[in-house]
Structure formats: structure tokens, C-alpha cells
Amino acid sequence: MHDPEAVVGALVAAFDDDPLTSWLFPGAEDRRAALPHVFAAAVAASIEAGELAVAGDGSAVAVWLPQAAHDPGFGDDGELPAVFQPHLERLEIFSRLVLARHPRGRSHLYLPFLGVRPQRRGAGLGSALLADRLARADAEGVPAYLEASSPRNRPLYERHGFRELGEPIVLPDGPPIWPMWRDPKTNYEES
Questions:
Q1: Where are the domains of the chain?
Q2: Is the pLDDT of residue 190 over 70?
């Protein structure tokens, strides 16, 4: 069993310098106060679904969420934490644009967060987490979806079979976000 607090801590460290989280929460102090709230609900939902993946030492985390064909449910719609209040306009813009592009009509795995602590980046931990879950998705015949929030991460996802799903999502004065889809591989396809 994974310690949710430690998992959230790893994600906060991993996303502290991410272009998207830097746009959502421009100040470093605001970002570090808000990010635990951003990740906690998704981590809890991923644990509940039996889909959370953590690298051996806790330096890398993949938050997978099964998505129904009809509705990309993202968890708790309860009261927003006070630390979100100064950033509501950006959060609402982001949510509206991302939800509008999230695929419907086919059940799939959603990867809202894949994070590796900065000191462990480049060691293959994120790739190993992807490979493990995607191999099972292939065996189950399940496609996967994500939004790449950094140009640095797109090649990693492409190496694992994800392809861009239309044009990037463009945030006002913000970074582009690349929706990416991966159909399950069959036994006849090459890696």
C-alpha cells in the first residue's frame, strides 16, 4: 500500500517547475501550497481504483484513472481549497478547455499525472511506469489518454505509442497542452 502523503509529495516536487502548473499558480509559494490539493483527490481515486503506480523508492508516480465511455469523471467536485481562490479564473479556463477535449465514447485509461522527482529524472523511472501499465492495457485491449503539459515529455509519450490527438490546447498567455491518445497494441504490432 502506498502512503498518499508521500505520493503527493513526490508529485509536488515533480510538477514544481512544470509549465502548466507554473501558469495555473504563477507564484512559487502559491504553487507549493496549491499543488498538494491538486494531486490529493486524483491520488485517492487512483488508489481506490487500484491503478496508482509508484517506482520502488517513491521517486516516480503514475496516477491512472479508468474512464467510462460516456463521462470523463475526475472525482470530487466539493468545495475548493482557499489557496485556489486567487487562481480561479485560470483554473476554470484550464478545466473547461481540457474537459472539452477529453475523449468520450470509448472507455479508456486516463493518465492525469506522471511525475518524477527532479533529481531522478532521466533514470528511466517514468518510462518503466508507463511500460508496465501500458503492457497490461494492451493485454486488456484498453486505450489510454493523457495531456502532455511539457514539450520535454512529449517524446517520452510518443516512444510509448501515444499520438497527438488534434491541435494543442492553447491557454491564454500560457503553455500549450498536447492531448495524446494511444490505442492498445495487438500481438501483431511492433513495439
A1: 4-74+95-182
A2: no
